């Protein structure tokens, strides 16, 4: 049945490939080209400047700051989200009462899962706008209001949240407050993911462990966790991408989109600021290329580190 | 691609709502220890459930208060009176009605086209050998790692220039946004459906062709219906993803030459909240956020098994 294969394949691929080339590949290619020019974006004048933009990147104070903020999220977002998600999944799956049938999941675990998953279906924008109200610095904010009521916070001197550039553990407080939101919205999703993975582990493995006298903590750390390794590493890669993409939170929640006083700048916010406020498109494209290279290196690195033999059951 | 055969098959099997019991007798952790641990589990799970639910409930309830109650009793969860007017105000003056209309108009086109073009391309790539097959496949895959911000400037420029010769494809046009959404959703859709079509047996497609069905006919009448579980998963993924998209519309749905913007919901909400300082219509903002999140939450509660398994299948590949 080779008849008409070429025509069929062309027909099926033409439109998707054309769209993809025009709206995705071509902009990327152009960005790489513009990064070698001094194009401002609004005029037609552009000159080839070689690698000048990249040299400038290396000595740019703001970029260095943004880079370290990205690294901060890259480490903390996966770390805290996965730890909390694993803990919740552990409680759900082995926190129940014991009876003759063994250790059960807690009562109502289905309901818990539905609730914990809520933030995942809300858009990041809705989450950001909602937390903006929670984080308000007067008594109308949910957290400040509650703490003022019980007298833990002085109404004259409320918690500033995302307007607070003061460092905490060497990192501006605003970043920690943004991290809290990211963990809040992500933990439920990964809990469901880990829970499903835990349930796909065959029961005889547990039976063997229990016959050998392992308690539930032992079983979890020595049996379940190692078997979840692959799922956890996949989650780590995905959360890494999310961590690079904290821009929605920075955009909605911080003063002047990266403030106060550049305390919450990340790569994306500097790029947008440089391109659309300062009108330095060429330089902004160089930032984008640097970010892309960084992302690809990181993805390759993560895949390399986490690549293990797959355990089939 | 050893994982490819596992992921999508799992997609339509929802995880059982109750975790499997661990059988056997256990000497440690029984009795008191177990009971205390059970109590601790419940306590912690309830605390986290409250941390998730309370802010959501607070937003919904504040949407029913009037402005003076929002200011005087910001924390209370019980409105004195149900002020439905807040919703009407957000819908009309806040332009949420228009945002919804724009979002729905765009998504009807973009989700349909994404699914159609994505599965067509994935099918051709997965089941036919031809020169350049790998090249095209990897070209689509590469879109998964590249940051969208890199493309922002040239993309805007490209759309702007296209708009000069084809006004319907210029900035601030629904059709343009549909095509851009489709192009940016293709990578993951093709990646997902590609591995799905690989798992379908050859014999059925061959039987269809022996019966005289053309390649196209085989795809639409035989293979596509067989891929339904995968289509549902990737469909949910695309609906949520495009509903939540804010960066592309903020970049591309900009008003040119003074015509009013056709904002979509996420973009509109950002602008409402960022400009909130000037108007301070708090109850209206809460009503807007409520209207933006309730439809998705309700859809999720109704279809929660499909959504959970659909989204997690998207990751566990």
From TrEMBL, chain A:
Positions of the ABC transmembrane type-1 domain: 67-302
PROSITE patterns registered for this protein in UniProt: ABC_TM1 (PS50928)
Protein's UniProt keywords contain Coiled coil: no
Location within or outside the cell: Cell membrane
UniProt KW Transmembrane keyword: yes
InterPro entries given in the database record: ABC_transporter_permease, MetI-like, MetI-like_sf
Membrane topology label: Multi-pass membrane protein
Membrane spanning stretches: 67-91, 111-131, 174-193, 235-254, 281-301
UniProt-listed Pfam families: BPD_transp_1
Protein keywords: Cell membrane, Membrane, Transmembrane, Transmembrane helix, Transport
Family: Belongs to the binding-protein-dependent transport system permease family.
Alphabetical list of PANTHER family matching this protein: ABC TRANSPORTER PERMEASE PROTEIN, DIACETYLCHITOBIOSE UPTAKE SYSTEM PERMEASE PROTEIN NGCF
Protein name, entry field: Sugar ABC transporter permease
Species per Swiss-Prot/TrEMBL record: Micromonospora solifontis
From TrEMBL, chain B:
Boundaries of every ABC transmembrane type-1 domain copy: 100-303
Pfam families assigned: BPD_transp_1 (PF00528)
SUPFAM superfamilies from the UniProt entry: MetI-like (SSF161098)
Gene3D superfamilies cross-referenced by the UniProt entry: MetI-like
Domain of life according to the entry: Bacteria
Keywords: Cell membrane, Membrane, Transmembrane, Transmembrane helix, Transport
InterPro entries linked: MetI-like, MetI-like_sf
Region ranges (Disordered): 1-27
Chief place of localization: membrane
Localization per Swiss-Prot or TrEMBL: Cell membrane
Transmembrane segments: 43-64, 99-123, 135-156, 176-197, 218-240, 282-303
Topology of this chain in the membrane: Multi-pass membrane protein
The family this protein is said to belong to: Belongs to the binding-protein-dependent transport system permease family.
Protein name per UniProt: Carbohydrate ABC transporter permease
Protein's organism: Micromonospora solifontis
């Amino acid at each position: 049945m080779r008849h008409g294969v070429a025509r069929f394949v062309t027909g099926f691929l033409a439109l998707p490939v054309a769209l993809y080339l025009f709206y995705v590949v071509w902009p990327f290619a152009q960005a790489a080209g513009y990064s070698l020019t001094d194009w401002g974006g609004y005029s037609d004048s552009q000159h080839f400047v070689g690698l000048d933009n990249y040299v400038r990147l290396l000595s740019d104070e703001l970029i260095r700051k943004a880079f370290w903020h990205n690294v901060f999220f890259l480490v903390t977002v996966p770390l805290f989200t996965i730890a909390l998600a694993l803990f919740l999944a552990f409680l759900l799956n082995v926190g129940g009462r014991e009876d003759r049938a063994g250790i059960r999941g807690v009562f109502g675990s289905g309901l818990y899962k539905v609730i914990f998953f809520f933030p995942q279906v809300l858009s990041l924008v809705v989450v950001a706008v909602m937390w903006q109200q929670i984080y308000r610095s007067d008594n109308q904010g949910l957290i400040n209001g509650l703490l003022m009521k019980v007298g833990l916070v002085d109404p004259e001197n409320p918690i500033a949240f995302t307007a607070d550039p003061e460092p905490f553990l060497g990192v501006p407080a605003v970043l920690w407050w943004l991290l809290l939101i990211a963990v809040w919205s992500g933990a439920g999703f990964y809990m469901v993911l880990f829970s499903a993975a835990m349930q796909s582990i065959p029961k005889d493995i547990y039976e063997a462990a229990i016959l050998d006298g392992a308690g539930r903590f032992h079983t979890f750390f020595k049996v379940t966790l190692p078997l979840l390794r692959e799922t956890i590493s996949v989650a780590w890669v995905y959360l890494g991408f999310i961590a690079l993409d904290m821009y929605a939170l920075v955009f909605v929640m911080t003063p002047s989109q990266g403030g106060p006083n550049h305390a919450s700048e990340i790569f994306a916010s500097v790029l947008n600021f440089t391109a659309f406020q300062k009108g330095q498109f060429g330089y902004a494209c160089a930032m984008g290329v640097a970010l892309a290279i960084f992302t690809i290196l990181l993805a390759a690195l993560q895949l390399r580190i986490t690549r293990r033999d797959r355990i089939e059951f | 691609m050893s994982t490819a055969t596992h992921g999508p098959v799992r997609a339509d099997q929802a995880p059982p709502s109750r975790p499997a019991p661990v059988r056997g007798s256990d000497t440690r952790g029984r009795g008191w220890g177990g009971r205390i641990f059970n109590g601790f589990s419940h306590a912690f799970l309830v605390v986290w459930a409250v941390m998730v639910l309370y802010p959501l409930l607070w937003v919904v309830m504040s949407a029913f208060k009037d402005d003076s109650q929002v200011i005087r009793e910001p924390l209370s969860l019980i409105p004195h009176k149900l002020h439905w007017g807040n919703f009407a105000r957000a819908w009309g003056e806040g332009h949420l009605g228009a945002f919804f209309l724009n979002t729905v108009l765009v998504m009807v086109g973009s989700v349909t086209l994404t699914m159609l073009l994505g599965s067509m391309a994935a099918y051709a790539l997965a089941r036919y050998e031809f020169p350049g097959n790998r090249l095209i496949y990897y070209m689509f895959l590469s879109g998964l790692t590249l940051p969208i911000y890199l493309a922002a400037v040239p993309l805007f420029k490209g759309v702007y220039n296209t708009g000069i010769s084809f006004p319907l494809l210029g900035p601030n046009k629904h059709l343009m946004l549909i095509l851009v959404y489709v192009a940016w959703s293709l990578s993951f859709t093709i990646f997902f459906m590609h591995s799905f079509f690989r798992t379908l047996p050859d014999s059925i497609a061959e039987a269809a062709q022996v019966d005289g069905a053309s390649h196209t006919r085989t795809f639409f009448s035989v293979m596509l219906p067989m891929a339904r579980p995968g289509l549902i998963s990737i469909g949910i993924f695309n609906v949520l993803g495009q509903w939540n998209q804010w960066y592309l519309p903020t970049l591309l749905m900009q008003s040119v030459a003074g015509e009013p913007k056709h904002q979509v919901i996420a973009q509109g909400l950002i602008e409402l909240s960022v400009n909130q300082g000037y108007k301070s219509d708090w109850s209206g903002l809460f009503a807007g956020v409520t209207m933006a999140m309730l439809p998705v939450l309700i859809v999720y509660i109704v279809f929660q098994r499909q959504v959970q398994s659909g989204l997690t299948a998207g990751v566990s590949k």
